[in-house]
Amino acid sequence: MEEAVTKPTKKGGGRLCCICNQRRAALKRPKTLEQICRECFYEVFEEEIHQVIVDNQLFKPGERIAIGASGGKDSTVLACVLAELNRRHNYGLDLFLLSVDEGITGYRDDSLETVKRNEVQYGLPLKIVSYKDLYGWTMDEIVKMIGLKNNCTFCGVFRRQALDRGASLLKVDKVATGHNADDIAETVLLNILRGDIARLSRCTSIVTGEDGPIPRCKPFKYTYEKEIMFTYAYFKRLDYFSTECIYSPNAYRGFAREFIKDLERIRPRAILDIIKSGEDFRISTSTKMPEQGTCERCGYISSQKWCKACVLLEGLNRGLPKMGIGRSSRGLNNDPKKDKDIKQSNGTKSIENKQCGSLDF
C-alpha cells in the first residue's frame, strides 16, 4: 500500500511555506510563484546571489570591491548582502561604498545621509565624489541652464565617468552595481528602440568594461526588483532612501520601465525572457562597431576624439548646453581644433551624438 502524500496544510487561515512546511507563507515569489515564509526567503534569496557570484566568478580572494551606493533600495540591499556573503562564505574581499554626489538639492543630499548611516551599519568605508569637484558643475546648475529636457543625458554620462574616477581613487579591482533584472530588461528594450547595436551586444553581460580601466559587475542580474524592494528590504527593515530623482519624471527610460511592468503583470517570467533574448542576440561580423580609444582631452576611454563628458562640458562652459545633444555629421569629434566652423542649428551647435566612455548600459 502506497504511503499517503503529505500536503501543506493551512494554519491560522494561511498556507504553509512550500520549502520548510513549518511556518506560514509570507509571500509569493514572482519568478517561481512559490509561497514561502520570510526565513526561507532570506535564505533562498541570499543563496541565489551567492550562486550567481560563484557561477560567474565575479570576485577573487583579496580583491578590493567598490559597491556603487546611492542610498536607494538596490544599492543598500547589495551592500547588505555582499557584506553578509563575504563573511559567511569567506570571499576574502575588501568592500567599500562609493557614492556620487550629483548636486541635486532635496534629493541627493538626503540620500547621501542614508549612505553615511549604511557606512556605520555595515562597517564599510565610504568614498564620495562630486560633480562639482570633478566637472565644476552640479546637476542643479546644469538643469538651470538646459531645463528638464535632456538633463538625464548629462547626468548619466557624468555619473558613469565619476564612478570610474572614484574607483580609481579607491584603487579597487572592480565596481559592483545594484542593477537588477528589471533594469537590464529595460536596457535591452531601450537599445532595440534606439537601434544601438554596440550597447545591445554588451548590455546583458554580467561583467562589463573588462577592456577599460575598472570592470563592473552586476550580482543582481537575475534578481527581480520586487524581491529586492518590496520583500527583502522591507522585511529586513533596511535603511534606504526611496524618493525618485526630482529631475527624472520625463526620462526616456521611464516609458520602457512602465512597459516592462505591464508585461510582468501579465507574465512574470517576461523579465527573464527579455534578458535571455538579449543574451542570444548575435551581431553580424560585417557590422562596423565603435573602436575604443582614448579621449584627447582628459584621457578617458572613448570611441571618438573627445569623450562624451568632455563634449558636454565644452558646451556648458561655452554657454551652449545643447552642443552635445542631437545628431549631426559635423562637430567637435571631427576636428576639435576647427570647432569654430560648426554650423548653428536651432540656436545651438550640434555634434554627433555618439555615446562614448560607457562601461555600463
Automatic annotation (TrEMBL):
The keyword RNA-binding applies. Pathway: tRNA modification; 5-methoxycarbonylmethyl-2-thiouridine-tRNA biosynthesis. The keyword Ligase does not apply. Residues 293-323 form the Cytoplasmic tRNA 2-thiolation protein 1 C-terminal domain. CDD domains: CTU1-like. GO terms for biological process: protein urmylation; tRNA wobble position uridine thiolation. ATP binds at residues 68-70, 74, 100, 178, 183. Residues 344-361 have a biased composition (Polar residues). Residues 65-249 form the tRNA(Ile)-lysidine/2-thiocytidine synthase N-terminal domain. Residues 327-361 are annotated as: Disordered. It is an enzyme of class 2 (transferase). Its EC number is 2.7.7.-. It is found in: Cytoplasm. GO terms for molecular function: ATP binding; nucleotidyltransferase activity; tRNA binding. GO terms for cellular component: cytosolic tRNA wobble base thiouridylase complex; mitochondrion. Its main location: cytoplasm. Keywords: ATP-binding, Cytoplasm, Nucleotide-binding, RNA-binding, Transferase, tRNA processing, tRNA-binding. Belongs to the TtcA family. CTU1/NCS6/ATPBD3 subfamily. HAMAP family: CTU1. This is Cytoplasmic tRNA 2-thiolation protein 1. It comes from Acer yangbiense. The lineage of its organism: Eukaryota, Viridiplantae, Streptophyta, Embryophyta, Tracheophyta.
